[in-house]
UniProtKB/TrEMBL annotation:
Gene3D superfamilies membership: 2.60.40.790
Protein's organism: Acetobacter syzygii
Keyword DNA-binding: no
Protein name: Molecular chaperone Hsp20
UniProt family annotation: Belongs to the small heat shock protein (HSP20) family.
Pfam families, per database record: HSP20
Keywords on record: Stress response
Domain SHSP: 30-142
Length: 160
């Protein structure tokens, strides 16, 4: 039996983390799902990631990768085999259909997908827009603001 975690105190003391807290809450309620196909998630750099999936028995044409907002969906559907005279005595290579979903953080983008020797590699990169990156805010003093607000009029000085 799983222990339930109450995230209510975190909602009261944090700002902007509601999506993450909702995901944690949802993850604690979802029962364990099928673990096929096996996969690895590798962090290859500060903002670079790679998902490697072992999809033995499937061809490149049997795989579909789509990104819908913050969800990456990898689907495998094996093309139906033509009836052959071969009779399997043991069939251990799984060729079943699957759909694997990955929740992505904000600004994650799939940059490449590569299939070789039964291994599907999906490369992801976090690309934060310039408007979202940290920027330095200049601080002005109240005396500088007062001088800017009051226009100064200079009179021409005439010799007497």
């Amino acid at each position: 039996m799983r222990a339930t975690v109450d995230f209510a105190p975190l909602f009261r003391s944090s700002v902007g983390f509601d999506r993450m807290l909702n995901a944690l809450d949802l993850a604690s309620r979802i029962p364990a799902v099928d673990n096929w196909p096996p996969y690895d998630i590798v962090k290859t750099g500060e903002d670079d990631y790679r998902i490697d999936m072992a999809v033995a028995g499937l061809a490149e044409a049997d795989l579909t990768i789509t990104q819908e907002r913050n969800t990456l969906v990898v689907t495998g559907r094996k093309a139906p085999e033509s009836q052959s005279a071969a009779e399997y005595l043991h069939r251990g290579i799984a060729g079943r259909e699957f759909e694997r979903r990955f929740d992505l953080a904000e600004h994650m983008k799939v940059t490449d997908a590569h299939f070789e020797n039964g291994l599907l590699s999906i490369t992801l990169k976090r690309e934060i827009p310039e408007a979202m990156k940290p920027r330095r805010i200049a601080i002005t003093s109240s005396t500088a603001r007062a001088e800017e607000a009051v226009p100064q009029i200079e009179a021409r000085k005439e010799a007497a």
